[in-house]
Specification:
heterodimer; A: mainly beta; Rossmann fold; Neuraminidase; 5-stranded mixed β-sheet; 4-stranded antiparallel β-sheet; 43% strand; B: alpha+beta; 10% strand
Chain lengths: 436, 239
Amino acid sequence: MLSLQSLTKPLLIVACVVLVAPSALGDDKAGVIDVSGAKRGDYPIAIPLAVDSDGAAAKEAQDVASFDMSIAGFFKVLDPQSFLADLKAEGMGIDPPKWKDVGAYGVMKFKVAVSGDDVTLDAKLYEVSKGANAVLDKKYNGKRGDLRRLVHAWCNEVVFYYTKEQGFFGSQIVFVAKGKGKSSIQAMDFDGHGVYALTHNDSINMLPSFSHDGGRVAFTSYMRNNPDMYIVNAGGGRPKKISAQRGMNTGASWSPDGSQLAITLSKDGNPDIYIISASDGSIVKRLTNDKAIDTSPSWSPDGSQIAFVSDREGGPQIFVMSASGGSATRVSKNGDYNTTPAWSPKKGAHVLAYTTRDGGVYDIVTLDLDTKKMTRITQGEGSNEEPAFSPNGRAIAFASTRSGGSGIYIANADGTGTAKKVWGGSATGVDWGPTP
Amino acid sequence: MILPRYHATAAGATVFTALAMAGAIVLAHHAQGGNDNGPDLSQLEAMEVSVARPAKPNKQPQKQHRDPVHKQDIGVSHDDKQPPPPKDKDKPKDQPAAKPDDNSPGPTTAIPDDEPVGKPTVEAGQFNNNKFGNADVDSGDPYLQDAVKDVLAGWEYPKILDAEGTAPLGCIQFDLDGKILDLHMKEKSGNGDMDDSVERALKQFEDARNKDPKPVPDRNGLREKIAAWNGWICFRFKV
């Protein structure tokens, strides 16, 4: 089909070049070519081993920082083997061309001094394009055993420098470790270090949920034979029974102010969503009253909405309703089996992550409730369930059974990159606490 | 359908004539003394060069390149009691040829037809969604297209960085034998990270071309054209 447009474009190009060419005669000139489409990848950052430092502490600082930055969602940690710089000569400074030559955009420098039980961490961040002056410079003091925490704090500063968002390093994850005929609630640092048990009974304990201040964990336990709701301090201790209605007392989700819990109760025979007091378990409000099964409530970060799972339209699907009650709207439209919704805590975002069954396997997806855009977080990597967002919404933790080993994995919440395993074992019921 | 191509050809001839004249005069000018400070920005000349981006599936029929399908060798029986395979002359001659069956899916091959194999199918001369009927890679000289592709391959701008600022102009001085003589940031963007990323791309291009020079081909007046620019070609980098 011959169009006017197809005719005019070549003619316009001719006009352009012919008009320019005569004026260029006799002068120095050059051809100009438009180049568009830079690769918008992760930010290459170099984290060399600290010099003039305690050897073991220097290695620990490098390892912790490298893991943190690799899991943050927008950094690519360069292989230290590729570094060309004379680290000894550089000390805490940098020779920018040497780092530019290895593709680094940012360079992190550490000096770790150990004196008895005490440790001092000097940390500097350089942007190679800005030269040899550090753009971020911090000093941390603590006990030797706190070094990981100090490095996490530094990495949060680095993330904030680049994104103006809080990082999630130093936060904790709670989960259920499954055993034979029993399961226990465990807590650990987000990177899998420092695992400890929050329950010490030989019963089934499940569905842990961090309060928004990170101080308490609600969970359901069969320790008194009925699935009752308990709250335990995040650091451990004696659990307090908070709801022991007849039937199910499961799936707690904290209100943003920590005063209430949305849970599933089946005291009248059919599971429905209720709001109870987090201090004494008294029922504040019944949110659903449907003959279908309503379960897995998740309170939105702004406190205005509750997402939950219901089979009122057939298979289990995700619904959203006002936290003050009213009608519910189905939001999951894909497939016939969608469960375990979790809200993104990212400010201004209305995004849910949930488990979807696709072709007999379970995967994690996110759904933007404003744009209806779905993003696949896992695919073709075994079975993946029960997502939980990081405190800044940049990452998602989930339980997985895959060829790389069962356990808890963390993936970028935008669907990019490869998930990293942070805990190995048979796990379920993942929830992510706040950044300290 | 011939008319648009005709206009393009006419355009090319006009441009070439103009550039050849310009080239001859500028060569004479530079013979008297070149400029070492990079190209004069006021005299930059727009060029039509772009790179094929096979992001969308081709709509037109595409010729697939694939490795030849090798016939499977048939083993030889070593059983003395087994009769030899019948020779062609032993075959019944009056057997009617099988009629083609329109419903038959036909012979299967080891490689599914819908999977691209061998070389990429988007090459110069192939049809795609371009309104001129050909892949974008057909516009401009392939040598310059290669240069654009190579520059682009080395241009990374981390997503975390702010892309604000005007598009920087980075220039490369080509030797006709294929080496890179000089680099020059002709126009900065006002965004240090952006300019830095462009400098890295230019440097990477320089290193690659000096390691493996690609001489400017003697076709369509390209050598004369580049010589007329004193070897300088500038790239306007747009994120």
